[in-house]
Amino acid sequence: MVMPGMTLESLKKHKSLIPLFFCLGLGMAGAGFYLTRLAMKNPEVTWHPKKNQEPWEEYKQKTYKIAAT
């Protein structure tokens, strides 16, 4: 037994579920993008621990500017 709205045929009958699935998909894609960005851009994450054992040391000499509006 399949839940209503889980097949394309029954989704045509339950049109109110389409925005729900759209928002859910958009939220999951956003969360996946954010986690991927954190894994790639975060200075505390290292993908090659033998090559660069302390990647955060590269950021010691960098200066950060905060734009206050």
TrEMBL record:
PANTHER family from the UniProt entry: GEO09626P1, NADH-UBIQUINONE OXIDOREDUCTASE MLRQ SUBUNIT
Lineage of the organism: Eukaryota, Metazoa, Ecdysozoa, Arthropoda, Hexapoda
Domain of life: Eukaryota
Record's protein name: Uncharacterized protein
